[in-house]
Amino acid sequence: MGRELGSIGVDVDFAPVLDVLTNPHNTVIGDRAFAADPHMVALLGCALARGLREGGVIPCGKHFPGHGATRVDSHDDLPRDERAEDELVRIDLYPFRHAIAERVDMLMTAHILYPALDPDLPATLSPLVIEGLLRRRLHFQGVVVTDDLEMGAIVRHCTVEQAAVDALRAGADLLLICHSLERALAARDACLQALGNGSLLSQRVAQAQQRIAALKKAHHRQRSAPTQSIGAPEHQQLIEEILRQAS
Fold first, then answer.
1. The Cα angle at residue 212 between residues 79 and 92, in degrees rounded to 5
2. Is residue 92 annotated as part of the catalytic site, yes or no?
3. Which of 207, 172, 12, 171 is nearest to 105 (CA)?
4. Of residues 75, 139, 179, 235, which has the active-site annotation?
5. What is the layout of strands, in order, in the sheet containing 12-13?
6. 147 part of the active site
7. pLDDT, tens only, 15-30
8. Do strands 106-109 and 143-148 pair parallel, antiparallel, or not at all (unpaired)?
9. Is the whole model's pTM more than 0.85, yes or no?
10. Sequence-separated (6 or more) residues with CB below 8 Å from residue 72
């Protein structure tokens, strides 16, 4: 995957999924999860991250601190994970701790409310989760990117513009706004206004810029020609197997 993506100019793959599928009725994660066992998720997730990196593509683990136990689809509305903190730490954070130990470059936040971690704000907008848990307790030094801020978990409860400012303020470095250019431009303007009135500190944005610049510098490389990599035998075999099963 890393070779094929890198050869056509893809720099980042929003993978691996590090969510532990503890709720079998969770359709939003479903078979995107490696397993219901945190040890297996850590093993396979870190292996995928290493493979992507070796292919010249930046991996991004998701969805911190874990999306595997929810029932509500965060594309539609805001899920709540009511479990105790010790259970979240023991199960859901296990793969993320291993990925951080292997110096994963990026992590994506979850649009989920975890009352045991922050009773008021979803992880994407929570300084307690991003700065407190991820940065200080787990010592993650890489880039934090939000999940898409146009998902129902966000837009049913606030504007994309406000979410963009709040996510940066909470400690996110990159913002995903995946569908509407108009919303993306409005979010940019809201961030500039927040910088101007002091509700978003310039030091926080400068810190994000420094992390992004360091990541880009670390992954600058010469790409191979596409014809050398596209159509990897493993992928061709997978396609053939899928077609056989489909027929």
1. 30
2. no
3. 12
4. 75
5. 12-13, 58-64, 106-109, 143-148, 174-176
6. yes
7. 999 999 999 888 889 8
8. parallel
9. yes
10. 78, 79, 80
